[in-house]
Write a structure and sequence with these properties.
By secondary structure, the chain is of the alpha+beta class. The protein is built from 13 helices and eight strands. The longest helix is centred in the middle third of the chain and has 35 residues. It binds flavin-adenine dinucleotide. Its cofactor is FAD.
Length: 409
């Protein structure tokens, strides 16, 4: 018998995140949508709260962005799920989902919960986890010369004594201006190809790091998206994540592993936006006298109700796929296929549901009287960053057909 209920412990933290979304995010959602690049000062209170909790040992900083929990905690959770465990990935996923239901742009601006935190949690050594436990890390992969083809990194890292010297330009870095640290992908030896791509933790105050400019965007306007320059940027030798050895056999599986943690998280953000749009649409349809029935076949219902049921089924599928991918990560099961499946399905569902909700709500949906049009704009990025819809489908196809990236491009 499959039990799809969340365990009690996870329900409590999801409820907490939902409360933050309802009481802090929703009331300021439109304000920061209209004030792009303005810093959401309301988030400072949250930062102070998270720091306070971390100092008191009640909560781990960065944990909500794909943290790694120690075995004793996992064992405690294990009893709740008959031998299976839910750890940092699952609770991060639920937090991301609930806070994105509130506002995904603000969610991406929550201190200490950057995508770089998930990357650190995925590949850092225990010593690094301690050192980078209390940081807010963004993730810098994309460069002017590439987006989807992450093997095309041209930023370089050269060892000079006890320091790495980084040179290159990173574009579209989410929280690139506000985060305290940036996880940067760079090549330690371009002649060795993709195997030489490693990730490095660059502190904000590292000499040679600067913000060139911020982007104006269609949606997630509360989130800062920065262009970063690394000009002879110096960082300590042990800020490289994972092994510094270049293993040509293994390719760049090391850095790619970070996506196994971050893709389910982005999927959850899309699920959160989809749920917000469905709830708003249900209220609008109910007001208009459209009944949504779970006892009558969709074909015998109002066309809008039939559409609603189809969207809700897509939403459920996306939700369950993202839970599965995070659960696998927590249980140390290889999840690249499932992470991409969840991201592909949720990314598409987020845009499909939010735009269809605008359509079904008509003029009200298109106007600023509700947040539907905003969610329609916000959702598209979740189908683009951390790998586009098409790239996820490509990865799924490769995995299922047993093809390499050279065989199926
Ligand atoms: C608001 C925002 C925030 C971002 N945040 C970050 C961040 O924090 N860190 C970071 O590193 N990057 C970030 N990015 C960059 C993002 O990850 C890239 O935009 C994304 O990976 C796509 O790359 P691209 O834009 O160069 O598109 P391209 O790779 O040029 O792709 C263009 C189109 O072609 C399709 N395509 C490409 N290759 C294939 C293929 N082989 N088969 C089929 N279709 C294909 C793509 O799916 C897409 O539809 C962000 C971008 C935006 C807009």
């Amino acid at each position: 018998m499959i039990n799809l209920e969340l365990p009690k412990k996870l329900r409590a933290s999801a409820n907490q995140a939902h409360q933050v979304a309802t009481e802090i995010f929703r009331p300021i959602s439109r304000k920061y949508d209209l004030a792009e690049h303005e810093y959401p000062v309301e988030l400072d209170t949250m930062a102070a709260m998270v720091e306070g909790l971390a100092d008191s040992g009640t909560q781990k900083i960065g944990g909500a962005a794909g943290g790694r929990e120690d075995d004793s905690e996992s064992d405690a959770h294990a009893t709740e799920l008959l031998g299976n465990s839910n750890g940092g990935n699952m609770s991060a996923l639920l937090n991301a989902l609930e806070t994105s239901w509130g506002d995904v742009g603000l969610m991406l601006s929550i201190p200490y919960q950057g995508l770089g935190n998930a990357a650190i949690a995925a590949v850092a050594t225990d010593e690094q986890l301690k050192r980078f436990g209390k940081v807010w890390a963004s993730m810098a992969i994309t460069e002017p010369s590439f987006g989807s083809d992450s093997a095309a990194v041209t930023t370089t890292a050269v060892l000079d004594g006890d320091e790495w010297v980084l040179n290159g330009e990173k574009i579209f870095v989410t929280a690139g201006q506000r985060s305290t640290h940036i996880v940067v992908w760079a090549s330690v030896d371009k002649s060795l190809g993709r195997a030489a791509i490693k990730s490095f933790v660059v502190p904000r105050d590292a000499p040679g790091l600067s913000v060139a400019r911020l982007e104006h965007k269609l949606g997630i306007k509360a989130s800062d998206t920065a262009v970063l320059l690394l000009q002879d940027c110096r960082i300590p030798k042990d800020n490289i994540l994972g092994s510094p050895e270049v293993n040509v056999e293994k390719g760049f599986a090391g850095v790619m592993q970070t996506f196994d943690n971050t893709r389910p998280l982005v999927a959850a953000m899309a699920v959160g936006v989809a749920r917000a749009a469905l709830e708003e649409l249900r209220a609008i349809l109910t007001d208009a006298g459209v009944e949504i029935s779970y006892d009558t076949p969709p074909n015998n219902q109002h066309a809008a109700a039939a559409e609603f049921l189809r969207m809700e089924a897509d939403y459920e599928a996306a939700y369950l796929l993202s839970l599965r991918a995070a659960w696998m990560a927590d249980n140390k099961k290889p999840n690249s296929l499932e992470a991409s499946m969840s991201k592909a399905k949720a990314g598409r569902t987020g845009t499909d549901v939010s735009l269809k909700a605008v359509e079904l709500a008509g003029a009200i949906g298109y106007s600023q009287r509700t947040l539907l049009e905003k969610w329609g704009r916000d959702s598209k990025i979740l189908d683009i960053f951390e790998g586009t819809q098409q790239i996820q489908q490509l990865i799924v196809a490769r995995r299922i057909l047993g093809k390499t990236s050279a065989e199926l491009k």
